[in-house]
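Lab notebook: predicted structure, single chain.

Context: the supervisor wants predicted structures on file for every construct in the current expression panel, including those that have not yet been purified. This is the next one on the list. No modifications to the sequence; it matches the entry in the shared construct table.
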Amino acid sequence: MTSNDASQPAQSELALDGQSFEQLYQRLEAVAQRLEQGDMTLEESVKLYEEGMTLAEQCQVLLGDVEQRIEVLRQRANGN
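Prediction complete. Output recorded below exactly as produced.
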C-alpha cells in the first residue's frame, strides 16, 4: 500500500496540533457560543474570532481530504 492509498488516513486527518476533526469542530462550536455571549472586551473578541477562523480553516482542510478519499474509493468501485 502506498501512502496515498485511499484506505489509509490522509496525513492531514489530524490537524497540526494533533486534534481530530471532531475535536476541532467541538472547539469551534465553543468559540462561536462564547462570541455570541458578547461579554468580552473587543480585544478578547478579536482573538477568539481569529481562533475560530483558524479552526474553521483546519476543519475545511480535513473535510477536503476526506472528500478526496471518498472520490478515489467511488472511482475504484466504478472501475475507473
